[in-house]
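Sequence in, structure out. First:
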Amino acid sequence: MKTILITGATDGIGLATAKLLASQGHNLLMHGRNADKLKAAVEQVKRVSPDATTDTYLADLSNFDEISLLTSMIKKEHQSIDVIINNAGIFKTPQTITNDGLDIRFVVNTFAPVMITQSLLPILSDHGRVVNLSSAA
């Protein structure tokens, strides 16, 4: 049984991955940026796998402070993780520029996975894996 972080776990590939991994008995750290969608995603995972172990993390990955808080919380609550699945991504959005003046797609799709991975490397198990997803959405 592995402990697996999935960013963008509230729908699409992230949610499908969470359901599959939960059915295999893995411990899931599910990330989302919307509390209601995250709660609904966990409910869907529990319908597939009632005994699934899930921890939830809320963070807007277009915000550097929230990325740091996310990884700090994960490190505080978990001594080790086995897999980081950087799945969160953004394509269409009405607001294309972050409060820091950067393109939101670049921050979420490029900076966030790097920051998350670098921050969590100290607790990534010896045989840990990092999986980065992207799509042409």
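Second:
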Amino acid sequence: MALKSKLLLIILDGVPWRNWRRLFGNLEGWVQSGEAQVWKMRSVLPSTSACCYASIHTGVSPQVHGICSNEERFRVKQPDLFSEISKAGGKTGAVTHSYWSEFFNRFPFDLVRDMEYDEPGGPIAHGRFHTMTGYNARNQMTPSDVDLFATLTMLTERFSIDYGILHTCTLDSMGHRFGHDCIEMDHACYAMDGMLAAFLPRWREAGYEVIVTADHGQTDRGHHGGHEADQQDFALYYFGAGKGPDENVLLGQLQLAPTVLRRLGVAVPATMKAKPFLE
């Protein structure tokens, strides 16, 4: 069954609103030229990575799906983007941290079995994962982002996926080490923006709508998890033909999952109660 459109969701972990708007010159340039739209989005609470990952894909809050910290992990029970798109006949792909495989395919994560898999019958048809095992403030254990972007591009060209997600922790890890108001973060965001810019035109030329966003923000002290604008608020950039709200409208993170399904022409499950923000 052919879906209405194809879409890639790019999650750059842990970037606050103001750093998106002042440091991502390529993304902002496409907004100025009219090729992209941008809104502010607010994360769920707690604004902790794993909690946000589960909410991004299920459209329900941590208090409903049950992932309330990075340490609490299991196969989520609610319908999610992978399961609904696969049931509708679409092909899915993921290039992400291993948490996404645990939440939406199987738990626990087996390093040998689950690092890379192609399972057309599963919710995640084509998975390529990394774990960051050994992560600490002195050693981030993150892959190069250009490698991750290239891997997602490979999935689009080798398997013709309809929906793909890429998630990278580089900027979140840098933020935890340095905070978000420093020379190191200025350069890290600049480098990420340049790497992403090399692939965005290729994805658009291949017929994909693209959403570039974060899971949560981060403070100048490198913290997130709580109830504060710097911790919760981030940008969402959209490349595509969908019609969105006024640029000053504040979006909620629970709107993301039903919006993706609507753009693909997949039925939105009853559990996703937030209103899609793109027509």
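Remark: Residues 183-205 form the longest helix (23 residues).
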